[in-house]
Write a structure and sequence with these properties.
binds magnesium ion, alpha/beta, Rossmann fold, binds adenosine-5'-diphosphate, Zinc Finger, Delta Prime, domain 3, three-stranded mixed sheet, binds zinc ion, five-stranded parallel sheet
């Protein structure tokens, strides 16, 4: 079977033949129909989504002997010339190789002359973001006073690198990724008309690997035919695609869902031994969790997932191990980790710790709720804004917090200067119903340094609470100091921490019960507040800050951990290495 590659053979020749990109196609066709074609277009979007194809169809539409027409004939001389890439009035320039000022000058020179044989001169500049600075300026001048009967079509895979001065002069169209479904249908058509035998699940593998690029999908099918001939079996395809064995993905999801952190290390070891690229594995793992989420959420996941019945059965079985909400949390956390893995200089360690974290996720999740609760308590009553719960931060990671609470909304009347005492005023909505606990106590310092026995007892109280209500334990662990007396457990919250008091008061009974169980005598809870925040542990300010963080507290309690040292983490964009890595990983 000798042939022209599929991408060329199946390049659409009319707008109607284009797959996806409905809104782009419709807008362009309408513009032609109503004679409102502008002088400069910018097509952006990932490779292989139809930018060049659309540019050429537009060129034909404008210059067709029967046109301008939204449906070029493809038989007139002009259409044929453009189709065969030999029209002298349609210039296709590759921005990557003609990117200098001289090239653009030459182009401008050529534009002085009217189109030779056609209605329009059409300049298509591909990868326009690669044009150099001075050349861009020259290009801009051309755009400011565009020669009559000239239409520019710029295409780019990196819209953000096109200078705004150019963007603002163009009509911009964003080309979307082609959906998996559309890719599969297209590949199915190609296979049928070329006598290729290939299973739907193999086509789904190709579509998945193509990541929304129809051209990539076509090229992969080319490769598969070159490798296997007209009968392509799934194993050949897996070899070509280097796909991760589903067994590994299931081993990983089971470890996470069954909270078997211990098996993660062997699993990652196996991946490395097997010569797998960890990032490829990770990508597939994200996809796997997305499939699990779908399976857990949908009644008929088979409508959206392309797998055979056996694979689907297995997926559905696995998806019963957690709720849709949980899968969503896992998925968000995985997505959040993707960039980190890409930039990490120790991908193995990064991957291991991330997966282990996911294994403990169920225990860690209430933390996010907790922090949100605290945030809400601090902000006062009223609905938390949209996105307060979702947002970027995945559960298990403490959202960034301000150290100083901004004034609670109850106190934010203009010109209101909160006196120190008033800070303890509770917004009505969050005021505890039960008043058995003194809601306001006089500021009073409690002698620091409880005995080792008292410390142990307090730790056991926290531990006991942990089992009953983990979020509460984490809040109580924010104490500034405490004292266990004969009849009372006194806990002091100082400075910024006073806002925790409201949350704790609500569960005073529970704390009293646990404290009484631990100590074997009836204790009442006395909550005290202090204005100043004395440094109780004598650590460095960084360590102090870290020890106060509820996330850290939570880890310390859960894993009986200690903070040994504190190293500031840089944001990825601050890292020089990030930029370099990014370049390298681009294809
Ligand atoms: N939206 C699409 N509809 C139909 N075929 C497409 C589409 N996008 C890409 N293709 C296929 O991929 C090939 C390359 O597409 P092209 O327009 O050059 O992509 P781009 O310029 O966006 O990188 C085409 O020849 C065609 O076979
Ligand atoms: Mg192109
Ligand atoms: Zn024509």
């Amino acid at each position: 079977m000798s042939y022209e590659i599929f991408a060329r053979r199946y390049r659409p020749q009319t707008f109607e033949e284009m797959i996806g990109q409905r809104s782009v196609v419709q807008t362009l066709q309408n513009a032609i129909r109503t004679n409102r074609v502008t002088q400069a277009y910018l097509f952006s979007g990932m490779r292989g989504t139809g930018k060049t194809t659309a540019a050429r169809i537009l060129a034909k539409a404008l210059n067709c002997a029967n046109g301008p027409t939204p449906t070029p004939c493809n038989t007139c001389e002009s259409c044929l010339e453009i189709r065969e890439d030999r029209s002298i009035d349609v210039l296709e320039i590759d921005g990557a190789s003609n990117r200098g000022i001289d090239d653009i000058r030459a182009l401008r020179e050529g534009l002085k002359y009217k189109p030779i044989r056609s209605r329009y001169k059409i300049i298509i500049i591909d990868e326009v973001h690669q044009v150099t600075g001075p050349a861009f300026n020259a290009l801009l001048k051309t755009l400011e006073e565009p020669p009559e009967n000239t239409v520019f079509i710029f295409a780019t895979t990196e819209f953000n690198k096109v200078p705004p001065t150019i963007v603002s002069r163009c009509q911009h169209f964003e080309f979307k990724k082609i959906s998996q479904k559309e890719i599969i249908n297209h590949l199915m058509d190609i296979s049928k008309s070329n006598g290729i035998t290939i299973s739907p699940s193999a086509l789904a593998l190709i579509a998945h690997a193509a990541e929304g690029s129809l051209r990539d999908a076509q090229s992969l099918l080319d490769q598969a035919v070159a490798f296997s001939g007209e009968v392509i079996n799934d194993d050949d395809l897996k070899e070509i695609l280097g796909t991760i064995n589903p067994e590994l993905l299931y081993a990983c999801s089971s470890a996470i869902l069954e909270e078997k952190a211990g098996s993660i290390f062997a699993l990652v070891d196996g991946l490395i031994e097997g010569g797998h690229e960890l990032r490829v594995f990770y990508k597939d793992l994200v996809e796997h969790f997305r499939n699990l989420l779908l399976a857990a959420s949908l009644e008929k996941p088979q409508d959206l997932l392309f797998m055979n019945a056996e694979e689907m059965g297995r997926l559905v079985e696995e998806s019963k191990k957690a709720s849709p909400e949980e899968f969503l949390r896992y998925l968000l956390a995985l997505q959040q980790g993707e960039a980190g893995l890409r930039y990490s200089s120790h991908p193995r360690i990064y991957l291991e710790s991330l997966l282990v974290k996911l294994c403990h996720f169920r225990k860690l999740v209430p933390l996010a709720d907790l922090v949100r609760e605290l945030e809400d308590a601090r902000k006062g009553p009223g609905p938390s804004g949209p996105g307060a719960a979702g947002g970027q931060a995945p559960p298990g990671t403490a959202p960034e917090r301000q150290v100083k609470p901004s004034s609670p909304s109850a106190l934010t009347q203009p010109g209101f200067q909160a006196p120190p005492k008033a800070y303890n005023e509770t917004p009505a909505a969050s005021r505890p119903r039960s008043d058995s606990i003194p809601s306001k106590t006089q500021s009073k310092a409690v002698p620091a340094g409880p005995s080792p026995e008292a410390k142990a007892a307090f730790a056991r109280i926290l531990e006991g609470l942990q089992k009953e209500k983990a979020a509460l334990a984490a809040v109580l662990a924010q104490y500034s100091s405490f004292k266990i007396g004969e009849e009372a457990l006194e806990v002091v919250f100082a400075g910024d921490k006073k806002f925790y008091l409201d949350t704790i008061k609500r569960d005073a009974r529970l704390i009293e019960r646990v404290a009484s169980e631990v100590t074997g005598r009836k204790l009442v809870l006395r909550l005290l507040e202090r204005e100043d925040e004395a440094a109780p542990r004598g650590d460095s300010p960084e360590k102090e800050a870290v020890l106060k963080d509820p996330a850290v507290q939570y880890f310390m309690n859960t894993f009986k951990a200690q903070v040994l040292s504190v190293d500031p983490v840089k944001k990825p964009q601050d890292r020089e290495v990030a930029g370099r890595d990014r370049k390298r990983s681009e294809r």
